[in-house]
Specification:
The complex is a heterodimer of chains A (162) and B (515). Helix content of chain A is 51%, strand content 11%. Chain A folds into 2 domains: 62 residues, Orthogonal Bundle (Arc Repressor Mutant, subunit A), CATH 1.10.10; 80 residues, Glutaredoxin. Chain A starts with a helix and ends with a helix. Chain B is globular. Chain B is of the alpha/beta class and 515 residues long. Chain B folds into 4 domains: 95 residues, Glutaredoxin, CATH 3.40.30.10; 210 residues, NADH-ubiquinone oxidoreductase 51kDa subunit (Rossmann fold, 3-Layer(aba) Sandwich), CATH 3.40.50; 91 residues, Ubiquitin-like (UB roll) (Roll); 93 residues, NADH-ubiquinone oxidoreductase 51kDa subunit, iron-sulphur binding domain (de novo design (two linked rop proteins), Up-down Bundle), CATH 1.20.1440.230. Chain B has 23 helices and 16 strands. Classes of the chains: A alpha+beta (162), B alpha/beta (515). Bound molecules: flavin mononucleotide, iron/sulfur cluster (SF4) and FE2/S2 (inorganic) cluster (FES).
């Protein structure tokens, strides 16, 4: 039994917990860390986190599913986060989303292999909308042509790294 | 001697190419220029806004793209020479000159992470004064200033602090609410990126006032840039001895920790935020007890908005009266308004309360960006009401705007043009509530879903009169029986849209007939 537990442990998740002193109140930070590493929250990692912080798996699951940021499934290689809150709607965010769904052949908030689209609710760039966030970089006054070039630029950067 | 050139490192400026501009100016200017990365002056319609220091003052050029850089050099912009993109002295630009900048006095002026520059521009004066004052005196000063919460509810800050100070407890907490979820708002972000020490200074003053030794800044994950700046600012303040144990020998201890949100609007509500800081689901808690008596980890806790805390240093440095001299009635001081949506000159406008909505939208905003006419504005975020142009003369104050059917909230104003479909906006309000409801109470969790469905029927022209009655009933129920303002105020945008634009809720047939 013990060996079984060890083999299914996510060593990286355990290290991230240790970075936060195995404190249960740091759960959000820890989940952010795990997601940053894997791109989503794999079941093994969640189990390791629960075990390490000495909280129930239900607690961890409850938190992981409450917040929009946390993903339980593998995500597309690149996610374009498009704001669809009011101020961006006022300058055509819905039209941008429709054009993006067509251009990238994927529905918003429905996964995707290479490119995924995610609806955001304000990125704090409301005077220069439509706003888009990709790999933590903010863009303003985005139209579909600009979105395509942003996507290509980030894909190139990601390719260069690996 | 090299010339100082200021290029913002604010996320909004970067979003439209400020980094490329900085790179191009560095490449061409070489040793002739000394580039300083400042916050944004708030004239976002001019970003990237490049400023050159001259003997007369800082001269502004914008919006600059990397392609403009050669022509700027050729025109001699390093001496402040004329150029098609030139605006003269930054501080004489009407948009800027007409503001009353107290909370945002340094934003866009200094390098946000240069502590010496911060101090040279009046930073730390409030904290130094506070460290020589008793907690009671600090609280009294904040009370006398008339400062009210800038997060949305507008509760008097001094009263809240007084309650927390009165609690006899060895452990208390001081928290900054930087969840800034309202669409159309970005002032918290701009302050954290443009003058992070001001927020930290306000938190230390608050901590001394109530006796808190630990604090959290809860920053939404949608703000990666602000998070980075705040982390560095905290590190700098720690190294300089302004955070930690026995701050500058005053006997005040204060440790500040950053917690990053995870994309839940409801975590801006204070009890939900505190749950989230504890590592739990962000579910709203029943009050009482209020956080000032029993909050984070069941200890007395103050939660204040970033702008509230960012205003505190000014008040301590200049006195309660200096602040209360601005504003009118029970809305004292200044409010950083944020102009967004379809607006020609969007940005941050810090003005004393009492300025009219029309002045903000027309004089500052200059109409729409698209060139179409203005149909309505929404003030106070997703839970705020729509205001039609015939009501634009309302004075911007907590009470006056509430009378006009909207609210100050966090100071956001979103402009919509004539093509906006108000029934769809009402539907969106319900949809947003459905998406972001914490799920604790039924009127909000289920009511929002029913509200959305009912609006779908109205939009489709299905039994319109009867469904309007259903919607009204639903709104009554949500207003009266929701535990927090998420469910309680979602009817506000719905009802104000219906009231101001009844024709658009009359079903497709009536709409066609009207056209
Ligand atoms: C649904 C909801 C969302 C809220 N979002 C925020 C927010 O993003 N930022 C904020 O400061 N306050 C927000 N508030 C208000 C807080 O509950 C609280 O009143 C405020 O942070 C107190 O600080 P203040 O007194 O300085 O305004 C929200 C309230 C509700 C009901
Ligand atoms: S009104 Fe909505 S968000 Fe507020 S407590 Fe109830 S369910 Fe949660
Ligand atoms: S509404 Fe889109 S960035 Fe704020």
């Amino acid at each position: 039994m013990v060996t079984l537990l060890n083999t299914i442990e996510d060593q990286a998740a355990r290290r991230i917990c240790a970075d936060y002193g195995d404190a249960p109140d740091a759960l959000l930070e820890i989940l952010h860390g795990v997601q940053h590493l894997h791109g989503y929250l794999p079941e093994t990692a969640l189990r390791t986190v629960a075990h390490t912080l000495n909280i129930t798996r239900a607690d961890v699951h409850g938190v992981a599913t409450f917040y929009h940021d946390f993903k339980l499934k593998k995500q597309a290689a690149q996610t374009l986060k498009i704001c669809r809150a009011e101020a961006c709607q006022a300058v055509g965010a819905n039209e941008l989303i429709a054009a993006a769904e067509k251009a990238f052949k994927v529905k918003i908030d429905e996964g995707g292999l290479t490119v995924g689209l995610e609806a955001m609710y304000c990125l704090g760039n409301c005077a220069l909308g439509p706003a888009v966030l990709v790999d933590d970089r903010l863009y303003g006054r985005v139209d579909i042509e600009k979105l395509k070039s942003i996507s290509a630029k980030h894909a190139k950067k990601a390719g260069g790294r690996s | 001697m090299s010339v100082k050139v200021y290029i913002p490192i604010d996320a909004a400026a970067l979003s439209v190419g400020a980094q490329d501009v900085a790179d191009a100016i560095a490449a061409r200017g070489g040793n002739d220029v000394q580039i300083i990365r400042n916050g944004s002056r708030g004239m976002l319609y001019l970003e990237p806004l490049v400023e050159v220091e001259t003997p007369q003052g800082r001269v502004a050029y914008g919006p600059v793209t990397a392609d403009d850089v050669d022509s700027l050099f050729d025109a001699g912009f390093l001496t402040g020479a004329d150029h098609a993109l030139g605006h003269g002295l930054t501080e004489e630009i009407d948009y800027f000159a007409r503001q009353e900048r107290l909370t945002f006095a340094r934003v866009g002026v200094i390098d946000p992470l240069d502590l010496a520059d911060y101090e040279a521009h009046g930073g730390l004066a409030g904290l130094k004064a506070a460290l020589n004052m008793s907690p009671d005196d600090i609280v009294q000063t904040v009370l006398d200033s008339g400062l009210r919460g800038r997060g949305g509810a507008g509760f008097p800050t001094g009263i809240k602090w007084k309650t927390a100070l009165a609690q006899d407890n060895a452990q208390k907490y001081m928290c900054a609410n930087a969840d800034e979820g309202d669409s159309g708002t970005f002032a918290d972000r701009m302050l954290m990126e443009g003058d992070p020490f001001a927020l930290i200074e306000g938190m230390i003053i608050g901590a001394r006032a109530i006796g808190a030794t630990v604090g959290y800044a809860y920053i939404r994950s949608e703000y990666p840039h602000a998070i980075k700046t705040m982390r560095r600012a905290i590190h700098i303040m720690e190294s300089a001895g302004w955070l930690g144990d026995n701050i500058k020998g005053s006997g005040t201890d204060f440790h500040l920790i950053i917690r990053v949100g995870a994309g839940a609007y409801i975590c801006g509500e204070e009890s939900s935020m505190l749950e989230s800081i504890e590592g739990k689901r962000g579910q709203v808690k029943v009050k009482p007890p209020i956080p000032a008596i029993s909050g984070l980890f069941d200890k007395p806790t103050i939660v204040n908005n970033v702008l509230t805390l960012g205003s505190v240093p000014y008040i301590l440095a200049n006195g309660a009266k200096a602040y209360a001299d601005y504003g009118q009635g029970r809305s004292l001081g200044t409010q950083p308004f944020q102009l967004a949506g379809d607006v020609a000159r969007g940005g941050l406008i810090e003005k004393a309360f009492g300025v009219s909505l029309r002045e903000l939208i027309e004089d500052f905003g200059g109409g729409t960006y698209s060139g179409k006419s203005v149909k309505a504005i929404q003030a106070g975020g997703p839970l705020g009401g729509y205001v039609a142009p015939h009501d634009f003369d309302v004075a911007m104050g907590y009470e006056s705007l509430a009378e006009a059917g909207s609210m100050i909230g966090h100071g956001g104003i979103v402009v919509y043009n004539e093509t906006t479909d108000m029934a769809k906006m009402a539907r969106y309000a319900m949809e947003f509530c459905e998406l972001e409801s914490c799920g604790k109470c039924t009127p909000c969790r289920i009511g929002s879903v029913r509200g959305k469905e009912t609006l779908d029927k109205i939009i489709a022209g299905d039994n319109v009169a009867a469904n309007i009655d259903v919607l009204e009933d639903l709104c009554d129920l949500m207003e009266e029986a929701s535990l927090c303002a998420m469910g309680g105020l979602t009817p506000m945008p719905v009802r104000t849209a219906m009231k101001n634009f009844p024709d658009e809720f009359a079903g497709p047939n009536a709409k066609q007939a009207a056209e």
